[in-house]
Amino acid sequence: MKGSLSISSGLLIGSAALAFTSIIGAFEPQYEYCTLATKPCTLITVPSWYANIPKNAKMIPGSGLTRTIASILGAGLCGCAVLVSGRGLKEIQVPQLEQARDKLAEEEELEKMAIASKMRVEDFRRELTDGYAYLHLERNPHLVDELTKVPELESALGQNDTKEELPVIEAAPEPVETQIPQAIQMILDSDLKQIVDAGIISLVGSQGSGKTTTGCMMLRYRIYKGHKLLIVNPHKRKSMYKGIEPHLLHGTTFYGVGVGDEARASSLMTGLETVLRLIEKRYDEYQNLEESQYDHFPVTILLEECAEYDGLLSVFNRPANLKEGDPGFNAKKWLTAFWKKVFVATRKGNCYLIRTLQSDTNTMNGTEGLAELIKSSGACTLTQFSVPDGECIGGWRSTGEGEIKIPNQKYTDQSGNPVDALVVKVPTYWDYKQIIADVTDFSDLVPVGEPSESLPESQPENPEDLWEMAIEHLKRSMSLDTNTKSMNLGAEKESPSDTGNHPEMKETTIFSEQFYTPNKIPKDKLILKIREMVTQGDSQTKIIEILWGVSKNRSGWKQAYKEFKELNL
């Protein structure tokens, strides 16, 4: 490498010298003579083509050939210098590339060693657990006998009526049911212990700060405390909340999900209306019934990504049309009324609220004039933080740091100066992963029995809807009977109370084949027609408007949308 650079340097110097030589001296022959016009005489040099050259002039040979040869050699040496220097640069780059490869190989080896170390640690942990188990069995040999004892045949078949008292096992481990699960214990050992039992909790933070992780762990804690759940999450992925269904409030599902913004908005509206019905029902019971007449078991309401609600529900925005009796719809005003109801009335019905949003402002809440109400409602706020990280999904990673604000609490720093919030440490997804493989998976929880009271079904708005419910109930109860039957629904418990105003509803004929739309199209033909319209690019809204003859969010739309969903397309 050094030799090539030295050679190239020498060649460059030689080419420079030859270049200098090529520009020195006259190219053609010249004549030199001394003129007698001056004393002393002046030496004059003239070119060979000069006309009047004296006879006593002395010829000086030209250096044209020398300059030409010098320029050619200089150019050649310069080209050689370029080639040699290029070779030297390649010799420099090769070691650098080898060094980079060696560095990558070292990093790969370190990563392999780290993985191997983690595997060894896991092996050591398993061996340690097995050792504790063997030690416990050695200290309590009677446990081995009891666990490996084969029951007698008569006892196994239930033919022996004598009841033998089970032997008392001394030093038996505490039942699992009385022990606090590790995940719950991690929450109680962290700074989150201050707010996990709060009636209203706001989880605030930017993307990747860990709001969803913290929310799922709080749901796990609430389930441990015996709560039922009502979940609204327009950002829910398909595998999220796996195994949590037995702990949902009876008659509810996951709200805010669907295909397309319109379907998600419809599901979201259903979920928020379900929340309002629960709160209103319990508030009415709280005010008008004795405590012994109702059972307000605890219910935790999770409202994820509240900032999304205003945008999704805006698809239903429409101006009021007083001539047709349509009050119109405004998502922002509706949400303002919703939050007022939720923040004021949840506690009286033993309902707990957990909500997540990226910024605790009226703009993010989609509300107007609720700043003071939110602050004074007793809501505890946990703000979490994140930093950019290219190795995490979405490019953000939780820092594990947060701030807690509890109403009517004053906080000071180490110097005693007042501060707005208490700085805390918040367990992250990776902290919980040491105990739970996926914080959004609740399959490990043991299902619990249904409480005695649950959320009532949504009540129809008019007698026609009640009538349709009765028809559907009869169809389900007679699904095995293919014969045509006629029944009087006047004595049915599910008949509307005002059927007297509708004589045509007192008696009807139920057929095994179902019909839909005002044109009474059979189900099979209707499905084929809908699929044909879908292939033509028609949206769900357009299909309902054409086949059922109703406008979106107008009278009859709710029933048409319900029939469309019953097709299970």
Brief descriptors of the model:
569 residues, three-stranded antiparallel β-sheet, alpha/beta, 14% strand, seven-stranded mixed β-sheet, elongated
Kindly report the average pLDDT value.
77
Shape: elongated
Helix content, binned percent: 40-55%
Strand order of the largest sheet: 5-6-7-4-8-9-12
Largest sheet: number of strands, sense, barrel closure: 7 strands, mixed
β-sheet strand percentage: 5-15%
The radius of gyration computed from the alpha-carbon positions, rounded to a whole number of angstroms, is 44 Å
Number of helices: 16
* Category by helix and strand content: alpha/beta
- Give the low-confidence spans: 159-164, 166-177, 479-512
Total strands: the figure is 16
- Measured distance between first and last alpha carbons: 74 Å
